[in-house]
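Notebook entry, structure prediction.
Reason for the run: the old model in the group folder had no record of what sequence produced it. Starting over properly, with the input documented here first.
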Amino acid sequence: MIVDDHVLLREGLKQILDLEEDIDVVAQAGDGEEAVAKALKHRVDVILLDINMPKMNGIETLRRFKDLGITSKTIMLTIHDDREYLCETIKIGANGYILKDSDADSLIKAIRDVKDGKTYIQPSVASMLIEELNSKEKETNGDLLKIEALTKREYEVLTLVAEGLNNREIAERLFISEKTVKNHVSNIFKKIDVNDRIQAAIFAYKNNIKKI
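New structure, fully documented this time:
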């Protein structure tokens, strides 16, 4: 489902996505209220959600999705001026972020990745988010202490979460069971004080966490 208050943008995105055999645009919405109603009706796999909309903006809409138990994966459509709003959507639990002026290949990759349980953060968006987060936080050694609390295996898993891999893919990469990966991810979330994979990925980017 595509949610944006600009009809031409919605139609343009639909034309691009309709060219892909594995992607079917089943609904469109022009504002948050309409998006909630159609999300409840269609129960789509992925929702492209604009942040700036009338009646109910993207942040309020995303929060409403969560409150109503809507399990559709959500990719936020953004422009460079939306950085403050994006930080808020991290807390609520969006699954991906992409700029409105991205090329078709990036958009299609984002949709497929999120549908498969991965996260997708466009590199330029990640930089923007980190800049905004850093501008709001005083420099402390808090993150360093959190990183030091991770085991070597948890650190490895965190780097792969930051790459956007899901639990099955991480298990295959590290030759361990998917259940073990799930336990590691749960422990990582507790140790670095985040609630989901997007927040974990942003934490990794912000602290320049890389493969060992």
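Summary: The beta strands are 2-3, 28-29, 46-50, 73-78, 96-99, 120-121.
The old model has been moved to the deprecated folder.
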